[in-house]
């Protein structure tokens, strides 16, 4: 277990699913954790359950992201860790996709990443220390999936953003990395339907879906002091789903 005592961590989309798993692992590692989410009811309940704090956030709104970081610095005097995790993934095939579908996806998944990372940098630069962990996906950067062209583009785009941002921040003591979950059992994944879940379980070598805490542990490593020499990198956490099988096996 990595020790995050005296560290202040912000987890976006932290009220449910993977964000909640990340928040739980960071709390257990000793961090002061702020859960930022658009869902106030779930966010407050989650904060109470985990021993964390809840702040409102609409990640698609730049002013909301700036206000959130200002409030965190005002109340906790520092920001050491940002887990930029918020994301949506409704399916829509290419033939029926409208500009609105496309824009809604990118305003949360891609623009939200930019807003949160940019808003956090000043507080991290002032202390010469920061750990930023993005939640990307295997869909887009490594694999494709029918119905997710807009989602795949957003998740691949996050990684391009991350690599250039990592170079811009390298001399400031700030690292930026990404976890790439496979299929993790959350409300968002359940919304894809039972048929999808069964299809995915069959495709994963372990034949099990991942848990939010599986991603939490990977994020905790990248958020630790010990990961200081890792930046601009990705960590796939998918039960081996994207491993190609040898034709001779
Ligand atoms: P989820 O739908 O279960 O939870 C998402 C959380 O984000 C919710 O608490 C929701 O209220 C919050 N949220 C939504 N819109 C918001 C907004 N505008 N501002 C602030 N908060 C907002 O999703 P999840 O499955 O936990 O996924 C979390 C992240 O992991 C996403 O980026 C997703 O793309 C990624 N991911 C998930 C899986 C998976 O299998 N579940 C796989 C790969 C990547």
TrEMBL record:
<comment type="similarity">
    <text>Belongs to the short-chain dehydrogenases/reductases (SDR) family.</text>
</comment>
<dbReference type="InterPro" id="IPR050259">
    <property type="entry name" value="SDR"/>
</dbReference>
<protein>
    <submittedName>
        <fullName>3-oxoacyl-ACP reductase</fullName>
    </submittedName>
</protein>
<dbReference type="InterPro" id="IPR036291">
    <property type="entry name" value="NAD(P)-bd_dom_sf"/>
</dbReference>
<dbReference type="Pfam" id="PF13561">
    <property type="entry name" value="adh_short_C2"/>
</dbReference>
<dbReference type="InterPro" id="IPR002347">
    <property type="entry name" value="SDR_fam"/>
</dbReference>
């Amino acid at each position: 277990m990595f020790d995050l005592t005296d560290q202040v961590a912000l987890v976006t989309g932290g009220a449910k699913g993977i964000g909640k798993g990340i928040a739980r692992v960071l709390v257990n590692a000793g961090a002061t954790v702020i859960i930022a989410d658009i869902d106030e009811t779930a966010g407050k309940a989650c904060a109470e359950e985990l021993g964390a704090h809840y702040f409102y956030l609409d990640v698609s709104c730049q002013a909301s992201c700036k206000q959130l970081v200002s409030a965190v610095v005002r109340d906790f005097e520092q920001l050491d860790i940002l887990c930029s995790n918020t994301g949506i993934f409704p399916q829509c095939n290419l033939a029926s996709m409208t500009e609105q579908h496309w824009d809604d996806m990118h305003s949360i998944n891609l623009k939200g990443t930019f807003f949160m990372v940019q808003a956090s940098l000043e507080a991290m630069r002032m202390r010469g220390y920061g750990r930023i962990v993005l939640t990307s996906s295997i869909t887009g950067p490594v694999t494709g999936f029918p119905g997710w062209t807009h989602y795949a583009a957003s998740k691949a785009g996050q990684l391009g953003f991350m690599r250039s941002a990592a170079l811009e921040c390298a001399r400031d003591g700030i690292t930026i990395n990404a976890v790439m979950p496979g299929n993790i059992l959350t409300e968002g994944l359940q919304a894809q339907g039972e048929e999808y879940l069964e299809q995915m379980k069959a495709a994963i070598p372990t034949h099990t879906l991942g848990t939010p805490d599986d991603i939490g542990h990977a994020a905790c490593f990248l958020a630790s002091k010990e990961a200081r020499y890792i930046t601009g990198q990705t960590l796939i956490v998918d039960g081996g789903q994207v491993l190609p099988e040898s034709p001779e096996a």
